[in-house]
UniProtKB/TrEMBL annotation:
Protein name as it appears in the record: Dehydrogenase
Residue span(s) of domain GFO/IDH/MocA-like oxidoreductase: 76-194
Keywords for the protein's UniProt record, in alphabetical order: Oxidoreductase
Pfam families, alphabetized: GFO_IDH_MocA, GFO_IDH_MocA_C3
InterPro entries: Gfo/Idh/MocA-like_OxRdtase_N (IPR000683), GFO_IDH_MocA-like_dom (IPR055170), NAD(P)-bd_dom_sf (IPR036291)
One function term, GO molecular function aspect: nucleotide binding
Domain Gfo/Idh/MocA-like oxidoreductase N-terminal: 8-66
Organism: Streptomyces capoamus
Similarity field: Belongs to the Gfo/Idh/MocA family.
Superkingdom in the source lineage: Bacteria
Stretch list, region Disordered: 201-222, 266-285
């Protein structure tokens, strides 16, 4: 890392293991360099807040890698909500299903299902609806391979989220969806309903006699499903560095998604509803 900063680079892209994100963000900020960093900033709130403080003190750019904001389907959903096509939004259903779990050694480093996987759904929920989460109730199941129990994690999780305007949202995830990689969002309003992630590669099989056939080539992972979105977010970062556009996803957005994940993890462990007001959103003074 020291060698990189001696090269005279113009910007830094961080795609290392999560445990190194906050340190490298701070190094880049102190060097006056703009940073693109894959989510999350850190696996805990103190580390996240410290890194954000370094960026703010340095006055540098930090763009976070929540690639779903650059996916055509999610962008269409945002337009449908913001443009009034759905009318009053009453229900949102978000889901992320991995086809197979990560290596056992990764689980203890990942931060858990809510911080590592569902954090994407929490971020894009805010981005699409324009609302904040008011409170959560979450639970999870560690059935399946013993590695989930050994890591203190869950292989399947579910959260009920109440948004600040009363809209209800559910977010579910699993690491063991044998049919394929399945990421969707349904948004239902008083006028219309739209779905993100429903195409000829969605790993679904209908039981209706007249239903659509199962996908011939279902999605197998995030790199394949969101390839164009990953390219688009990096192109956006170049434009931000050049001063051609505003930052589309700064560190404060990542903090808000992490706060929701933290609330869900607390709710799961303590078996109770958790208001977002319980989760710190600023550095202690």
């Amino acid at each position: 890392m020291d060698e990189i900063f001696r090269w005279g680079v113009d910007a830094v892209v961080i795609t290392t293991a999560t445990a190194a994100h906050a340190e490298y963000i701070g190094r880049a900020a102190r060097s006056g360099l703009p940073v693109f960093c894959e989510k999350p900033i850190a696996l805990d709130l103190p580390g996240t807040l410290h890194a954000l403080a370094e960026v703010e003190t340095a006055g540098t750019v930090l763009q976070m890698g929540f690639q779903r904001r650059f996916d055509a389907g999610y962008a269409g959903a945002r337009e449908a909500v913001r443009g009034g096509r759905l009318g009053r939004l009453h229900t949102v259903r978000a889901m992320t299903c991995d086809q197979s779990p990560p290596p056992a050694e990764w689980l203890s480093l990942s931060g858990g299902l809510f911080r590592d996987t569902l954090i994407h759904d929490f971020d894009v929920l805010r981005w699409v609806t324009g609302r904040e989460v008011a409170d959560v109730y979450a639970t999870g199941s560690d059935r399946g391979p013993a590695m989930f129990r050994q890591a203190g994690d869950v292989g399947t999780g579910a959260a009920l989220l109440t948004l600040d305007d009363g809209t209800l949202a559910t977010a579910t995830a699993t690491r063991l969806n044998g049919a394929g990689y399945d990421v969707r969002m349904e948004l239902a309003g008083e006028r219309d309903t739209v779905v993100v992630g429903l195409d000829d590669r969605t790993p679904l099989a209908s039981t209706e006699p007249s239903g659509p056939p199962p996908a011939d080539k279902p999605w197998t992972g995030f790199a394949e499903r969101f390839g164009p979105a990953y390219e688009a977010e990096l192109n956006a970062f170049v434009e931000v560095v050049r001063g051609e556009r505003a930052n589309p996803c700064d560190g404060r957005e990542a903090l808000q998604a992490l706060r929701i994940a933290e609330a869900c993890e607390r709710s799961r462990r303590e078996r109770r509803p958790v208001p977002l007001a319980e989760i710190p959103g600023a550095a202690e003074t």
